[in-house]
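Hi P.,

Sorry for the delay on this. The queue was packed all week, but I finally got your sequence through. Input first:
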Amino acid sequence: MPKPTRIAALATLDAAPASWLMNLGVSGEIGISPERIVGTLIAIAPVIGTARIVSAAGSIVRALGLLEDSQKGTGA
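Then the structure:
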């Protein structure tokens, strides 16, 4: 599945931060920029609604916090 499609699916399904963490890591490895991820979320906002986009943004922030904690070795 193309990464923008996967990002759209995660937002639509209100995915958990762990799902975002896994997929954002893969996106970074294959060169999907943060701008492309944000652009995808903006593009699907009229379809899935603002509440889902805000929820996705919160999950992304939590996922990045999990990543930071794991890199520091502090756990979640």
